[in-house]
Amino acid sequence: MNEALVRRFMIPDAVKEAWEEAGKQIDSGLNDEALETLRAAWEEHGDSANHANTWKLVGDAKQAIAQSTEPVSKKMLREASNAYQSALKQDSKHRDARRASNAIQIKMDGLGIRKSTLPKLVDDGTPTIYGMIAILVVGMLILTSIKYMPEIKNALSLTSESSDDWDATLVIELYPDAAPKTVASFKDHARNGNYDYIAFHRVIDGFMVQGGDIECSTLPLGSADCNPGTGGYSAFWYGQGVEGNPTTWTIPDEFDPNYRHVPGVLAMANAGADTGGSQFYFVDKDSTPTHLDDKHTVFGIVTDDSTYLGSSINGIELIDMLSLVPKNDGDQPLNPPYIHSIEIEGDTALMHLLIPA
Description:
Serine Threonine Protein Phosphatase 5, Tetratricopeptide repeat, Cyclophilin, ten-stranded antiparallel β-sheet, 10 helices, 36% helix
């Protein structure tokens, strides 16, 4: 028996204990904690943790996380499927991994989720054109000594999400020169994830699309202890509100005569002078609400290089798409579009959106 195989069968008791603990955590719905438990075992015991049982538990935890989101996370389902496949690579006779792999594949097929977002690299043992390109790229990586991260470590590290996790990306040019306090607050909320999974709670076609209520517009709408559109606060204390109570902080108005309300503008919602918080709105297509000038701070505008389902789209067209979603008798969407996340790159914001059918 070779050395690698000997190590495989000599599983430390601590790894076995980690499996048992992770299994209990998954049964209790503590899936992130289970991944942390498995990650710690990997970091401490290295190759000894590269076992079919580890991979099976990784798959179970990630599948549970995927199913806990609305809509179901395609990325997490793919990662769970890949984990089960890795378990079978370690032990092709692992019955639980085989059952789980078959079950998740059926589930993904039913949801129309492809197993991989990557093009096919090999066809009947022969590299496709994509395979040839991949070989070239790998060769370049090796030549430049780029370090490869082990497969299991990558799976347990919960790596960054890809564009498969959202439907559209709205690119916004921010105006820090015109509204420095407003832009700073918006950026800080975005970087801290406060806008993640916050719905657009008020939509008026031909006028504006409003969202950003970080207190009362979490999904599903109505699940918070306050009404959508009634909450939100500044990320920083600008001398307004109680300094020791962040939920009372507001942003002073910042009006610049060179930045007015035109289609595609990003502006702050408020309840009167100097009451801006976290809520914002986009001016819709063909709308020029000049009556809002010098009443609401303009601090950005959408650009032409936004995307929808992987294709380029003008930002104002994407705003118009949001304005057309079905609504109740008022202005509240029945199945609201919402923010997946916002990335900040300098004075550009990439707002990743999910737009339910």
